[in-house]
Design goal:
348 residues, two-stranded antiparallel ribbon, 12 helices, 68% helix
């Protein structure tokens, strides 16, 4: 039976490094961030080619996906293809991940709410959620932040790492391109209802597996609540209008003992969502708990990627019989003492 290829093991290792780099460094400055440059390019494309129809939106989505995957970085290190693939995947995964930024933004809003600075929290809220903060009280803001942390644990952490591990740099940049296009045009406004349809569907497809993986990671990170997580996700996840945000938010609700869902206002549009979980309503202090859970999910995912990379490397060494990266068999080395002893025994 053949084991994982060296490239696959390198991608697993690179995805883990990308998560670690985001945790340690945070996102690059906007002036050098490739996502900012991508967003500017797609905004220009929209200005030039916008038509109120699905065909124009499909062209927009196709162009963005091609641009994202086509600009993925490559690193070639002579005689060390594993290292080159791992470094490139780590760089792409780091630039596609935004877990630290998510945690810092949510934590900042949570502190403002705990300090009673409701107006400042409302001003900061649009950086994290798309809802209209006008008239929201502290519990509604706390719910919005907890739900956003849950949903964005998929978008900003698990999905970038998943696609980095599966397809390397092209997957990381391609995923971030899809997610960015969805945030730009995947709205149910009159302008984007048809034009943004393709981008929204691409995003749904790209997040389908990562959202379910997030549920499993939440259950593993909070084993005492694992049975409740699976029960609530099965029962309440389908109530959410998003096929991917629903399972993630339901999992967080169950793990944290909260009840999410309710009435959300998006400008002139209102959505009434069914309840997720059967605990109490979120409070400002629950934001920190949600952030900790999101970080634990990222840490557990990173550990699993490292284990997978290690198992793959071991399997590859067994399969190749100790061949080096350049394809030649590694010769066993002996000390000078051992060589002299072998020579002496050969003369006897």
């Amino acid at each position: 039976m053949r084991g994982p290829s060296p490239a696959r093991s390198a991608r697993l290792a690179g995805a883990a490094l990308g998560l670690a780099a985001d945790r340690l460094l945070g996102e690059p400055p906007a002036r050098v961030h490739p996502v900012a440059a991508f967003g500017s390019a797609m905004a220009r494309f929209e200005r030039l080619a916008y038509r109120n129809g699905r065909a124009a939106g499909m062209a927009y989505a196709g162009a963005g996906l091609a641009l994202g995957t086509g600009t993925a970085p490559r690193v070639v290190i002579k005689d060390h293809p594993f290292l080159g693939e791992a470094v490139a995947t780590a760089a792409a995964g780091y630039m596609a991940t935004a877990g630290r930024s998510l945690a810092e933004t949510a934590t900042s809003i949570g502190r403002l709410l705990e300090q009673g600075r409701l107006e400042e929290a409302g001003q900061a809220l649009p950086a994290l959620v798309g809802r209209d903060p006008t008239g929201m009280d502290e519990k509604e803001m706390a719910r919005a932040v907890v739900e956003s942390v849950a949903e964005n644990t998929v978008d900003a952490v698990v999905a970038p790492a998943f696609w980095s591990a599966v397809t390397g740099t092209a997957g990381a940049f391609g995923y971030r391109a899809v997610n960015t296009m969805d945030s730009m045009v995947g709205h149910k406004s009159p302008r984007y209802l048809r034009y943004g349809w393709a981008s929204a569907r691409l995003d749904d497809g790209a997040n389908f597996i990562p959202a379910r993986l997030t549920v499993a990671l939440v259950a593993a990170a909070r084993p005492g609540s694992a049975r409740e997580v699976w029960r609530v996700v099965r029962r309440d996840g389908p109530k959410h209008p998003s096929p991917n945000a629903g399972p993630a938010e339901a999992a967080f609700a169950a793990a944290l003992g909260l009840r999410l869902g309710g009435t959300n206002h998006y400008g002139d549009r209102t959505e009434v969502r069914g309840p997720l979980g059967h605990g109490r309503a979120p409070e400002p202090a629950d934001i920190a708990r949600a952030v900790r859970l999101s970080r634990d999910v990222a840490g557990l995912l990173g550990a699993l990627l490292v284990i997978g990379a290690g198992l793959g490397i071991g399997a590859d060494r067994n399969r190749t019989g100790g061949r080096r990266a350049d394809g030649r068999r590694q010769r066993p080395t002996r000390s000078r003492t051992g060589a002299r002893r072998a020579g002496a025994e050969g003369r006897r």
